Amino acid sequence: MKHATYLPDKDYRNALQAFQKISKPPELDSGLFISIGICLESLGNSEGALCAYRNAVTLAPLSKEANLQLASTLRNYGKLEDALAVYGYILQVWPGATETLIDIGNLYLDKGEYNNAIDAFETAQRLGVGSAELKRSIADLYLNNNMHREAALFYQGYIASSQDVSAEDLYRLGNAYYMGGENLSAQETLQKAIDKKPDYAKAHLLLGSIYVEELKPDEALREYEKAIEIEPKQASTHIALANLYIETGEKAKAVDEYRIAINLGQKGASIFYNLIVMLLEEGRSEESAQLIKEALRLYPQDNSLKNILEIIVESSKSNLEKAAG
Questions:
Q1: Which of these, 24, 111, 123, 154, has the minimum number of CB atoms within 10 Å of its CB?
Q2: Is the pLDDT of residue 261 over 50?
């Protein structure tokens, strides 16, 4: 039959037309609807695919393939609760289908239920399901939930079981150490990431931030400058460098870095505030007045910016009175 060759060749449109011509038993079975669903889904018709897979399940409630296809498409179509119910049914009927736990974990991720996702992934791991990548996924979830020690342990496990450890893997572990307050371990791990990939700007930036906390401004400056050399348009690095310059008393350089960050699109209220304050301290009232206008246009309800505006207005009045006197 023609549809038998169309589907393996991924000629979904012709395959669908061939399948739809089949309308009488005994050929009208669950497998036929699964094939129709695959064609419709591949052609972008998720609603039609859902209908086909539901028909497949109706005709064969104990078809594992039909239920898996239905659950997957429900998730892709945004019907997360329905998908979760079908996955639960699959595990109930086929307890050995433990690979479904990965799908359930990913579904919980879609719902933003991170603790449930962790539970599903950890259960899968205990049952020996999933590759080493699963450990990294669990570690990412722990880190997102501020469970830094647990994240570090899973990153360590992933790295230990991986044959090709990347700089990104080492960065994730270093970040977990840092977030957990283990700065020494973080430094060592981030340096390994940089050794593996010298142009890894993100690792240089984080290492610089650790040096700031360790009161090592020279080392921090070196890392920030290297990060900017690699990625000059990364606004967050310019902000970090500006903050460092404030700590070292180099306010003119801090002003320059804040301006670069703003020009790169990083226009947070705190950045405007810091920059305006420094300009006022240097007596650059015209520049600060222009910036406060832009800042208040973006953040009209920010009290700190409003307070600075009052200071600028009072300063202008005082200068006018002195000039008149």
A1: 24
A2: yes
165: which 2 tokens? Answer: 């450890």
How many other CB atoms sit within 10 Å of the CB of residue 183? 15
Q: Identify whether the C-beta of residue 276 lies closer than 8 Å to the C-beta of residue 295.
A: yes
Confidence class for position 316, pLDDT limits 50, 70, 90? low
Do 259 and 275 touch, CB atoms closer than 8 A? yes
Q: N- to C-terminal Cα distance for the chain?
A: 101
Residue 144 and residue 114 in contact, taking contact as beta carbons nearer than 8 Å: yes
Sign of CA dihedral 289, 291, 297, 298: negative
Structure tokens at 192: 């390994």
Give the whole-angstrom CA distance, residue 258 versus residue 282.
Answer: 15
Please, what are the domains in the chain? 1-97 (1.25.40.10), 131-192 (1.25.40.10)
% residues pLDDT > 70 (the chain): 86
pLDDT of the residue at 50: 83
Nearest to 179 by CA among 206, 216, 215, 161: 206
User: Could you tell me the pLDDT band of residue 320, with boundaries at 50, 70 and 90?
Assistant: low
